[in-house]
Design brief:
Layout: H1 26-55, H2 63-94, H3 101-124, H4 128-157, H5 164-191, H6 196-235, H7 242-269, H8 272-294, H9 311-339, H10 345-366
Helix pairs in contact: 1-2, 2-3, 2-4, 2-6, 3-4, 4-5, 5-6, 5-7, 6-7, 6-10, 7-8, 8-9, 9-10
């Protein structure tokens, strides 16, 4: 007769030998961003539009109120999403570990505070409020630089760098810092303007390149980089052509850089050549952005069966809005010429909202 003995359980591994999983911190950034976009974004934006419609005048709300609403969307909605997702996922992309996790977690309350304080102070922008708004903007720049530095150290220590997606992610981080620096400069210039003429001159010269940096540079580079990394694994869509993505990288970044440099040069010098350069850069951006988006192949048949209403539906809807916004961007001068005016605020605003609310926000929801 044989007896069966049960092997003794192996002793538990010490904590240092267990595989470490990064703590989930992204959801707090996402929830805070949703709260910001529902309040300072959707509700406040709708109120501003109602005031414009009632007065039939784009100047009904002050430029400070419109810009305060815009910065809340950039830093509080898109920015918090990028920071939360980046802190959570980029280290795993690169095979590294995020340094200073406590500092990383502190970015959320500090950025939320900066966005809220600036939204209130910039909307008034008189007396002490102007100084408070500038201080909040300076804090935003510091927090963005801290976020980028944390990820820079993570990438430097990582083992899995070198994919073409990482080029786009690195470009997005660089655009984030540059956009935040230009935003602070523009904020100081507007809230300290001596008179309305100086205020309008600052807005006319620098508002467009600032939004180009934030949307064409930061948002698009981040979305392309993340999409190259995660879309095939999430939805079973065909992998993008990485050689094409690599060939498109520098033309796309160059288009953004020339847009940002040539527009203020055109407005300051009033030389027709600079306006032509800006128009050519815009068309180059439209072409390269369209090719880069098409290369992601989000409309191809997935390799797995997905429910009809899956996150992929949001991704596809976002790409439809991107196509609409690019078409509107290219057609903007034609629309203004047809109306017999040098610039159409309505068309420009609709174009910006098509890419931010339609493309960027739907991509954020889908991913």
């Amino acid at each position: 007769m044989t007896t069966m003995t049960t092997p003794a359980p192996s002793p538990p591994r010490p904590a240092a030998a267990r595989p470490s999983t990064p703590p989930l911190i992204y959801h707090r950034f996402f929830l805070t961003g949703i709260a910001v976009t529902l309040t300072a974004g959707a509700v406040w934006g709708a109120w501003l539009l109602l005031r414009i419609a009632h007065a039939r005048d784009f100047a009904a709300p002050s430029a400070f109120q419109i810009n305060a609403h815009g910065q809340a969307q950039i830093y509080g909605w898109m920015g918090l999403f990028i920071i939360g997702f980046g802190l959570q996922m980029f280290p795993s992309f690169w095979g590294g570990r995020l340094p200073a996790p406590r500092l990383a977690r502190a970015l959320l309350p500090l950025m939320a505070l900066a966005v809220g304080v600036r939204a209130v102070a910039e909307a008034r922008a008189v007396g002490r409020c102007a100084g408070v708004a500038i201080a909040a903007g300076g804090l935003q720049l510091l927090l963005v630089a801290t976020f980028v530095s944390l990820l820079g150290v993570t990438a430097w220590r990582g083992r899995n760098r070198g994919r073409v997606a990482d080029r786009y992610l690195a470009a997005g981080l660089a655009w984030f810092v540059l956009a935040s620096a230009l935003d602070l400069r523009h904020l100081i210039q507007t809230v300290t303007a001596l008179d309305r003429e100086a205020l309008l001159a600052a807005i006319a010269t620098w508002q467009v390149p600032l939004r180009d940096l934030q949307i064409h540079g930061l948002a698009l580079a981040m979305i392309i980089g993340v999409s190259l990394r995660v879309l095939p694994g999430l939805f079973g869509t065909p992998a993008a052509d990485e050689r094409l993505a690599r060939r498109l990288f520098w033309p796309l970044q160059l288009a953004v850089l020339v847009e940002v440099a040539s527009f203020p040069a055109a407005m300051i010098t009033r030389r027709p050549l600079w306006f032509v350069v800006y128009g050519a850069a815009t068309l180059l951006f439209v072409a390269t952005a369209a090719l880069a988006a098409a290369n992601l192949r989000v409309f191809a048949r997935p390799r797995v069966v997905l429910p009809r209403l899956s996150p992929l539906a949001f991704i596809r809807a976002a790409h439809v809005w991107l196509a609409v916004s690019l078409a509107m961007l290219a057609a903007g001068p034609l629309w203004a010429h047809w109306l017999g005016i040098p610039f159409s605020h309505a068309w420009h605003g609709a174009t910006r909202h098509a890419v931010t609310v339609g493309f960027v926000s739907l991509m954020m929801v889908g991913v």
